[in-house]
């Protein structure tokens, strides 16, 4: 009888240990080798590119309507126009923002016809240094483009 008691005690302890290990979740095995990287090393391939910092940079160009402009991407998310068709044009509703490597620019009251009527246009596209070609849609439902060069 003493032998069965001696065997019962380790069996109960083993069963308790197995029951308790279900209460603890052990971390899973790593899914990748931590010593390797899957990011592209050639700077291409879409996805590993670093976002361009446009704040404080000045750009000039022409939209598809023929409006010529020079502006600066201000740190506060507004656009400061120094020239718009050889006139001062700067309103606080002209804004810009970044989403990853894409830029979005909204210009308010862009003249779209000879009578001076205008529309708000939101342009978007890949943010790059040097030059950008952006496409946009106006509140009037029309499509527009903007080609700008840094400097």
UniProtKB/TrEMBL annotation:
<keyword id="KW-0732">Signal</keyword>
<feature type="signal peptide">
    <location>
        <begin position="1"/>
        <end position="25"/>
    </location>
</feature>
<feature type="compositionally biased region" description="Polar residues">
    <location>
        <begin position="30"/>
        <end position="40"/>
    </location>
</feature>
<feature type="compositionally biased region" description="Polar residues">
    <location>
        <begin position="125"/>
        <end position="136"/>
    </location>
</feature>
<protein>
    <recommendedName>
        <fullName>Lipoprotein</fullName>
    </recommendedName>
</protein>
<feature type="region of interest" description="Disordered">
    <location>
        <begin position="29"/>
        <end position="59"/>
    </location>
</feature>
<feature type="region of interest" description="Disordered">
    <location>
        <begin position="125"/>
        <end position="151"/>
    </location>
</feature>
């Amino acid at each position: 009888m003493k032998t069965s008691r001696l065997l019962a005690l380790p069996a109960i302890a083993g069963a308790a240990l197995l029951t308790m290990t279900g209460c603890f979740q052990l971390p899973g095995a790593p899914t990748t080798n931590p010593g390797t990287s899957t990011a592209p090393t050639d700077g291409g391939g879409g996805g590993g590119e670093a976002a361009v910092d446009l704040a404080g940079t000045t750009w000039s160009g022409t939209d598809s309507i023929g409006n010529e402009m020079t502006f600066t991407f201000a740190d506060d998310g507004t656009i400061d126009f120094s020239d718009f068709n050889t006139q001062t044009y700067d309103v606080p509703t002209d804004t810009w923002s970044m989403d990853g490597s894409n830029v979005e620019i909204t210009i308010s009251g862009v003249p779209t016809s000879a009578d001076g009527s205008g529309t708000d246009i939101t342009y978007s596209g890949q943010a790059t240094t040097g030059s950008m070609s952006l496409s946009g849609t106006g509140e009037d439902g029309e499509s527009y483009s903007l080609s700008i060069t840094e400097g």
